[in-house]
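Lay summary. Proteins are chains of building blocks that fold into shapes, and those shapes determine what they do. In this project we predict the shape from the chain. Here is one chain we studied, written as its sequence of building blocks.
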Amino acid sequence: MQVTETLSQGLKHEFQISVPAADLDAKAGARLVDMKDKVRLNGFRPGKVPVSHLKKVYGRSVMAETIDQTVRDANTQIFTERGFRLAAEPKITMPTEEKEVEQLLAGKSDLTYTVSIEVVPSIVLADFKSFSVEKPVAEVTDTDVDEAIKRIADQSRGYAAKGEGADESAKAEAGDRVTINFKGTIDGTPFEGGAGENIQVTIGSNTFIPGFEDQLIGIAAGETRTLKLSFPKNYASEKLAGQAAEFETTATAVEAPQPVEINDEFAKTLGLESLDKLKQAARERLTAEYAGATRQRVKRALLDRLDETHRFEAPPSLVEDEFNLMWNSIKAEMDSSGKTFADENTTEEAAQQEYRTIADRRVRLGLVLSEIGEKNKITVTDDEVGRAVIERARSMPGREKEVWDYYRNNANALAQLRAPIFEDKVIDFILELANVTEKKVTREELYREDEEKSPA
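And here is the predicted shape, written in a compact code that computers can read:
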């Protein structure tokens, strides 16, 4: 076998490989001899089929298999000897002219082909003991707990009918709940989904299209109004997006929110023994939420540090794949919302450049994390993946079996669960080596987004 490197440009390499016809013929002949005791042909006793006859019957298919195996073996040898790690599947160019193919399958010509590859660069890992990481930590205060419970109370509060008739107190205000019947039209014509009966609307909840709830302010039970407004340009239904519409609306009830006394009885309505138990549960939940926010801030800071200390050329094909994945998602989202790049104060060219930069960062960080994991024997066990599947199933009550079957029968879905577990284990490994210092912060500081948030 003769190997000639015809291209060596950055991470891209190309080789021309030539395998003598005699070598191919010998390999094919060995395969035919091996078939002799296994093939059953009419007119021949088992094991007595002449190799020459086998060659007439199976020669072309055996040679095709031999060529395929020879190419795979030759490529593996080339890549292994040079210490290459492939970034993508190699591109193989074989003879295509009919005459060449026929000569090759007949064992009368040498096999000559080219293989083009893109490799993963050699990565020199930083000294993680030199990393300094600041860990923002927020304490759950009594005020935080009280505010959380108040939000729960607001969501749990009941409603009671307001006064009747012309009484000013009977008219709907912000925060009130109005029960309505409505019929919508566009240019005087009813449209699909434009009518409803006994629909409850809380004024100020922003659950209806902009302007709808505002025009219910001041309405009383039994009153009919015609609401005039337009569907948003980014409305989910393309037929309705941007259209001006009128809704003939009748209020059948106007109700005001009732005060909720936060005490032991209120806690019992939530399944807890007392107000103290409710406060304890709220504190535990907030503590977990703050810990999660702290983890995200630390992780982002650590990824930024890895980005700064590992600058190398990322394989272009991987960057392009990552960019296309993000860009297709962005375009689909913009198309569905009706937004343009001008709405985001940018241009398509500028946005593409930004996402290419993000794609490059993601690929490099992925390779760095993979290198750290490989060199330090960090792996994800089947049990860890199994626990992740169970957690995902528990998050969807009533569909546990469906979720379990989905992951059991979908290798790609399992890989998507495995990836973040691996990433977190690598992050934890680095944090054990790094110099981590805690910094006390307020809740607002913990959740405040950095002015220039780094992409993950």
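What the prediction tells us: The mean pLDDT is 90.
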